[in-house]
Amino acid sequence: MSSQEPPRRATIADVAREAGVATSTASVVFSGKAKVADATRERVLAAAADLGYAGPDPRAASLRLGRSGIVAVVFEGHLRNAFLDPVTTAMMDGLADGLAELSAGILLMRDEPGEDGPGLASAPVDAYVLIGWSGRTRESVEVVRGRGLPVVVIEGDPGDGTIPRIALDNADASAEVAQHVYDLGHRDVALITLTLGHDRERAPITPERLAAATVGVTVDRLEGMRRVFPDAPAISASGSFIDEGIVIGRMLLADAATRPTAVLAQSDLLAVGVIRAAQELGLRVPEDVSVAGFDGIAIDGLGGQSLTTTVQPAVEKGRAAGEQIARMLGGEAGETQNLTCVFRPGTTTGVPPR
Amino acid sequence: MSSQEPPRRATIADVAREAGVATSTASVVFSGKAKVADATRERVLAAAADLGYAGPDPRAASLRLGRSGIVAVVFEGHLRNAFLDPVTTAMMDGLADGLAELSAGILLMRDEPGEDGPGLASAPVDAYVLIGWSGRTRESVEVVRGRGLPVVVIEGDPGDGTIPRIALDNADASAEVAQHVYDLGHRDVALITLTLGHDRERAPITPERLAAATVGVTVDRLEGMRRVFPDAPAISASGSFIDEGIVIGRMLLADAATRPTAVLAQSDLLAVGVIRAAQELGLRVPEDVSVAGFDGIAIDGLGGQSLTTTVQPAVEKGRAAGEQIARMLGGEAGETQNLTCVFRPGTTTGVPPR
DNA sequence: TTGTAGGCGTTATCAC
DNA sequence: GTGATAACGCCTACAA
Q1: Residues of chain A positioned with their CB less than 8 A from the CB of B79
Q2: Contact A347, A315 (CB under 8 A)
Q3: Claim to verify: residue B203 and residue B237 sit in the same structural domain
Q4: I want to staple A352 with a disulfide (CB 3.0 to 4.6 A). Which of A23, A93, A261, B174 is the partner?
Q5: Closest to A147 (Cβ–Cβ): which among B54, B70, B148?
Q6: Residue-level pLDDT at A1
Q7: How far, in Å, is the CA of A112 from the C1' of nucleotide D15?
Q8: Nearest to residue B190, comparing CAs of B282, B269, B270?
Q9: What residues contact residue A256 under an 8 Å CB cut-off, 6+ apart?
Q10: Is there a domain that residue A351 lies in?
Q11: Which percentage of chain B shows pLDDT scores above 90?
Q12: Are B162 and B236 part of one and the same domain?
């Protein structure tokens, strides 16, 4: 008595037929968008159960409705960063919050320069949040704008001014940290920056490299630092990791003759690495060398010390983006938000050694 | 000369008409699935540019193709956990990896018991990964299975055995840690578990509560611990955080008369919290009290100590799930994977005080 | 290589 | 309260 396995899943039309009602009626039973007689509803539900119908196909619904309930969050490079960098995870946390009222899902996407695959434009999403620390974002912006969907850029360069963005006072905040160190008396300072561009090269920063830099955050923070220390040598890190800070810290601190009295890093992770390197070399912080960071993330492992840094509103950044997306999907215009960092003096900076 | 703003976006049919070709031709130009004369392609592209057509609408394409290129990752409770818990972030990292070959996007979703909103079933996805530490997952499984899409469960109870799952040897690994502590001579041991159920209650574990527990991981790890210490008192944490460990640590260690000689925690974060609490109370670890954890995540801030724990393959868990999804989308059957933890002795456990 | 036609599964509109 | 019908925008046999 066994028949062929049904070749396709039941559709709402099948359910309607089985229940002896119109498809529109069956549809309404599932969407609840109109009143249906109890008896009718029962029959439809029974038919659905019978046929193993699990409710409307979201793909069809999203075509019909023009909405998918999904917001894309676009990272450049590997998605690892989305989960491994504490500033980013905090931001995502805030974004999830800001998006909560939409009960929209968050689609993680990457925008890798090399690949041409399906790409950003092929995802059925209702809006885009571009997380961009690089000029790459500019290009993505064009791709995405063409779709006519809401876009918000977090710390990226949106090209023209028509796209709302969530920005940070990177330059000012960096200058404030630098000024603190200057005021302590330091004049011989080394700077460690985030990556300059997609190459992620660890190398001294030259005017040429700086001119070719594509990561706005890095450039802005460096600009702030150089307001106070115009001639300080700078080196770009290959990424924001403690280990990278250790490597660069060793380079900077190993030779007593060329050792700076203070190191300013563009991230807390790098700063912590430098402190580790100093400890390795038997140097005391801040007696022998002062170290300051940027971000204000919670870092354990400083042995009771607190890092001098500036605290960026990472969670707030995400929440603000989410809120703007929600506004734009509601038909209002999105607004650019300028968020500010708060300087937080710690115990890792002090007067320079005599 | 200004005309009304066009009421709707251009479609591929508009482009085809404008270019003077058939829609199928225009479609092929964008999909690249067939050869098109260069001249024709040019004309189509020009027409598209003219009309501001940014390529096929993914919503329509996914209906037509039956695929959206999206894999849903379902968490129970707040998405915060996806970003703030180190074990989970590592797992997500692995998942992104395992899914990379599909070049599928990852849709973060939550499955909150309370809410009935759009819900899991309303997302246009091709497959589901259920991250479940609770019995809640069981229910989600049913919802999702009805869709007839591939499903993989990570550390959850899949109900019947037909769903591939990624599992850990939680009981055995816990027993191994416990045995290590037993072998050191400890007999007076306190246990700290993860949450027992959705209530997230911090409270002593009674047989009744244990019987009602829904989080399989917690139950399994406790079972392993009790193989070695059948009568050890246990308390459930409200979550896996350092701060929670501190709170519970204070409770357990404050009174010298009732203080255990060792504390076994079901997560490293809880264990670190206990160590902090011990330090606060002026107790030395491991001289006055031994502490062990579970997970093997990298934790700074132990002041040079290394936590005795068991290392779970968090990244591998995610990667395995991604690979199974990829297989299933390829038409093959998914397979359950049993992963194992590796015991890692550290310096936070030692012989009990006399 | 290009054109035609049908349908993917749903929901909104509008009569009844 | 219920039913018929027309899109939503695209892709892909199939025919020319």
Answers
A1: 92-93, 96, 106
A2: no
A3: yes
A4: A261
A5: B54
A6: 39
A7: 42
A8: B270
A9: none
A10: no
A11: 61
A12: no
pLDDT beyond 90 at A185: yes
Spell out the long-range contacts of B29-36 with Cβ–Cβ below 8 A and sequence spacing 24 or more: B30/B55, B30/B56, B31/B56
Residues A263 and A132 in one domain: no
User: What tokens does A25 get?
Assistant: 């009626």
Nearest CB among A70, A123, A301 relative to B123 is that of: A70
Same domain flag for A182 and A225? yes
What is the rounded distance in angstroms from the CA atom of residue A270 to the CA atom of residue A202? 13
> How many structural domains are present in chain A?
3
Measured from Cα to the C1' atom, the residue closest to C11 is: A64
Q: Separation of CA B119 and C1' D13 in angstroms? A: 36
* Residues A113, A109: Cα–Cα separation, whole Å: 13
CA distance linking residue A161 with residue A179, whole number of Å: 31
Cα distance between residue A232 and residue A254, in whole Å? 18
List the A124 CA – D1 C1' distance (angstroms): 35
The total number of residues shown for chain A amounts to 354
Q: Does the residue A152 lie in any domain?
A: yes
**Structural domain of residue A30, as residue ranges?**
12-56
Whole-angstrom Cα distance, residue B75 to residue B72? 10
Q: Euclidean distance between the first and final Cα of chain B, in Å?
A: 96
Residues contacting B179, CB < 8 A, separation 6+: B228
* A233 to chain B, closest Cα gap in Å: 30
pLDDT at B128: 93
A71 and A180 part of one domain: no
What is the average pLDDT across A278-297?
A: 95
At position A37, the amino acid (one-letter code) is A
Q: CB B70 to CB A124 under 8 A?
A: yes
Do B220 and B143 have their domain in common? no
**Nearest residue, CB atoms, A69 vs list B54, B89, B122:** B122
Prior bond to A150 cis, omega within 30? no
Rg of chain B in Å (alpha carbons): 27
Size of interface A-B (CB pairs under 8 A): 140
A214 and A326 within one domain? no
- What is the CATH number for A106? 3.40.50.2300
Q: Which amino acid is at B248?
A: I
Tally the C-alpha atoms within 13 A of residue A254's C-alpha that lie toward its C-beta. Answer: 6
- For residue B249, being part of any structural domain is answered with yes
CA A196 to chain centre: 17
Contact criterion met (CB < 8 Å) for A108 and B121 = no
In a domain, residue B347? The reply is no
Find out whether B324 and B335 touch, Cβ atoms under 8 Å: yes
B27: the nucleotide nearest its CA (via C1') is D11
- Distance, in Å, from the CA atom of B230 to the CA atom of B175, rounded to the nearest integer, reads 11
The residue count for chain B:
354
Distance, C-alpha B318 to centroid of its chain: 8
Strands (E), chain B: 70-75, 105-110, 127-131, 151-154, 165-168, 189-193, 203-204, 234-236, 262-265, 290-292, 309-311, 337-339, 342-344
pLDDT given at position B1? 38
CA atoms within 13 A on the CB side of B198: 13
Measuring from the CA of residue B22 to each C1', which nucleotide is nearest?
C3
| B191, amino acid identity | L
The torsion of the CA quartet B31, B35, B38, B40, rounded to 10 degrees, works out to -70
B6 Cβ contacts chain C strand, under 7 Å: no
**According to the model, what pLDDT value does residue B231 have?**
96
Please tell me whether residues B141 and B178 are part of one structural domain.
no
> Is the pTM for the entire model greater than 0.90?
no
Q: Stretch A147-163: mean pLDDT, rounded?
A: 83
d(CA B284, CA B288): 5
Query: Do A247 and A275 meet the contact criterion of CB atoms below 8 Å apart?
Result: no
